[in-house]
Give the backbone structure.
Amino acid sequence: MSVVIVLEGAGPGSFTVAVSPLAELSACLHALTETAHHPELRDWGRAVTANASAELRAGLRRFSPLWSALRWRGFYPGLDGTRPAGPGSGSAPGPGPAPGPGAGQGSGVGQGSALEEQLRTVARLPIDRFAELTAFACVNGYTRFDFSRLLRSAAQRAALEHAATALSAGRRELAAQLLRDPETCRADLLAFLDRCRSEFFAEVWAGAEPELTRSALAVRGRLASGAGRAVGGGSGNSRLLSAAHATNPTHTTHATRTTEDLAEALASLSPDSSRLGAPPRVVFDKLHHSVITPARTPVVLVPTRYNAPHLVVKNEPGLPPVLHYPVDAPEVGVTLARSRMLALTDPHRVRLCRLIAREPMTTLDLAARLSMTQPQVSRHLRALRDLGLVRAERSGRFVHYRLDLAAVERIGQDVVRALQH
């Protein structure tokens, strides 16, 4: 399964990079309740919960389905159907040139005002839409369910109750509260989120916002690096390029270079990404399937510090797709972690690694010790070097190979982190 972003016809204007305090608050709540996912934040989480009020503790338990697995769409920009402004962009959306950080909604001009405006957007959401999005979170998915008439359809209510009960008691209880009184459920959720702001998140945001703004500006710059070479952008771009190519083939080259810039910028957000052609697209290895076409539906990119290493992809019906990406993408993804484990299942490679873990050795020495030919040893070493497990050290006319013990030691940790992407 994978999330596919099809770049055909897309341009820099098909993407907005926005800093969102409410999205970062959702990341903090996830780290507080899913401590095994974020061992590096465990001490911070203990300090927060140790000083938390009884109301905050109760809210963490009551609303945890909204951030445990499938992240609730209400946490992200574009909830009202409008494109958010990026940091430093004033009121203009998109990743174009900017005068610098510090302007525009979500740019960090007062955590209180930005977060409060996002909470007001949730409060203004039609209650049917609020119920639909919350029901999706209760059942940990939206591809198999239709909750668009949840508050008026007995069949959809029954589907929610059945699916939530099969998952956990917490999801069953939240679904029951939603069906019983959706307005009170929303009011209680908003009060809880505001309590988070006053009890711990204001301090968190003061430290995180500058880093998130820097990341947003950097990603926006990478997305826009080919803007001057392209012909327009958005959904009409492919038609313009086709017409232009009839008289000037260089336009196709410009479009290709722009698409490559977009693909490179998107692929850099996760180690579990790949770039494919015909049509040009970026594929993220995820546990659900989704196809996103930015030329038709602009995509919002939101940086996070507290959500690392997760890359969260939101693509609910009728709303702008969102990529909630870590400011520092992990170096090792699922594919590399799996390949490293598989490489060490070969008994010849295990013996080879045991030898070069003790001291650097040449291929000639290894071949003699392992009763193998030099080409056989070279093939094993090349495979281990490609996976980052072996380093080569030249000494005069000799090349010695040494096992990278730090990389091997990290395999277990890398696997755990990779499985969470």
Q: What stands out?
A: DSSP finds 16 helices and ten strands in the chain.
